[in-house]
Design a protein that fits this description.
With 331 residues, the chain is an alpha/beta fold. It has helices at 29-40, 54-64, 70-81, 83-90, 105-114, 126-139, 181-195, 211-217, 224-240, 299-308; strands spanning 21-22, 95-99, 118-123, 144-149, 167-171, 200-206, 249-256, 261-268, 272-276, 279-283, 288-295, 312-318, 324-330. Bound molecules: S-adenosylmethionine. S-adenosylmethionine binds next to helix 2 and strand 3.
Length: 331
């Protein structure tokens, strides 16, 4: 299958009638190189951004409905309970920009409450995002909603006619936890630049908590997270032409207390030889591929990170159990 390919046609009208779909190369030679380098590293790794082909996006949506996955439910409840205060802090009539927008479900509620004028969803899972933005446009016809297919780790570029004023970068879902502290800082600094003077950031973070609660959220009884983790191998097979057999890899998730992060790995069930055009690797039984980190930041530590990235006047809302926080900060 060809790469999720996607030419450079910023602002072109899509067949679905989206006003602007910026298409960028999501899976060209650079992605291939990144994946191969990761697979050949002493501790093999695959970036979590490769979880998200269409199937990966659908599996993530299924995860958000699992009883063990408290994150989405808690964040939604917080945004509902404190909706008025959040809108007061953020201000009305905003241009909402959501990196990693996924289903755009949270954006729909937020844009309605803020009477947002524009919405730009950016996501690596291009087809899934297009469907989501179409549904958003149907639900909120007055909103100028756009889809931008892109990798936010490679930069954050918006269509040229998105107003530079009154911007709110919306980054829910605790997605910032997928980045090591240095990369999280760099991404927050890019978000601050994107928000511009007078803009802001509304972000959700998952807080440290009991190990059993954390580990269950990333290793549910129904095996949906295991399927999500293994799906990365099917996606990688399509991207680099490798011959991973996902069934021969076991999902592992555990809380690394010292690093304050949940780690997900895929562990070889027996010795395996994996090949791709021009390369390959032998894996011993029990050897792991590291596929995701989810850092759990404390509120003070995260506020300090926001300040370092150039944000100020931070306000936060947490649930009664102290499991999750939504923060607003000014650029
Ligand atoms: C954990 S989900 C969160 C989705 C949604 N924002 C929410 O809160 O429910 C992460 C989303 O970010 C997208 N994503 C992951 N890595 C990305 C990257 N490097 N560039 C753009 N989008 C990315 C995924 O496709 C997915 O839709």
């Amino acid at each position: 299958m060809p790469p999720a390919d996607v030419t450079s046609a910023a602002h072109a009208a899509s067949p679905h009638g989206l006003r602007a779909v910026q298409r960028v190369a999501l899976a060209g030679p650079a992605a291939r190189q990144e994946i191969e380098d990761g697979l050949l590293a002493p501790q093999a790794r695959i970036s979590p951004k490769y979880f998200y082909d269409r199937r990966g996006s659908e599996l993530f949506e299924a995860i958000t409905r699992l009883p063990e996955y408290y994150l989405t439910r808690t964040e939604r409840a917080l945004m509902r309970a404190h909706g008025r205060a959040i809108a007061g802090a953020v201000g009305l009539g905003r241009v909402v920009i959501e990196p990693g927008a996924g289903s755009c479900d949270k954006a729909r509620t937020l844009c309605r409450r803020l009477a947002a004028t524009h919405f730009v969803g950016v996501d690596i899972s291009a087809d899934f995002l297009q469907g989501a933005v179409l549904r958003l446009r149907a639900a909120l016809p007055a909103l100028d909603a756009r889809a931008v297919a892109g990798d936010i780790t490679a930069g954050l570029q918006l269509p040229a006619d998105i107003p530079p004023e009154r911007r709110l970068v919306f980054y829910p879902g605790s997605s910032i936890g997928n980045f090591d502290p240095a990369d999280a800082l760099a991404l927050l600094a890019r978000m601050r630049a994107l928000a511009g003077p007078g803009g802001g950031l509304l972000i959700g973070i998952d807080l440290p908590k009991d190990r059993a609660v954390l580990e269950a959220a990333y290793d549910d009884a129904a095996g949906v997270t295991a399927a999500f983790n293994r799906n990365v191998l099917a996606h990688v097979n399509r991207l680099i032409g490798s011959d991973f057999d996902p069934c021969r890899w076991q999902h592992r998730a555990f809380f690394n207390w010292a690093a304050s992060r949940v780690e997900m790995h895929l562990e070889a069930r027996g010795p395996q030889r994996v090949r791709w055009p021009g390369g390959g690797r032998d894996f011993a039984s029990g050897e792991c591929i590291h596929t995701e980190n989810s850092y759990k930041h404390s509120l003070p530590a995260f506020e300090a990170l926001l300040a370092k990235a150039g944000f100020c006047r931070c306000q936060s809302w947490t649930d009664a159990r102290g499991w999750y926080a939504v923060l607003h900060a000014r650029a």
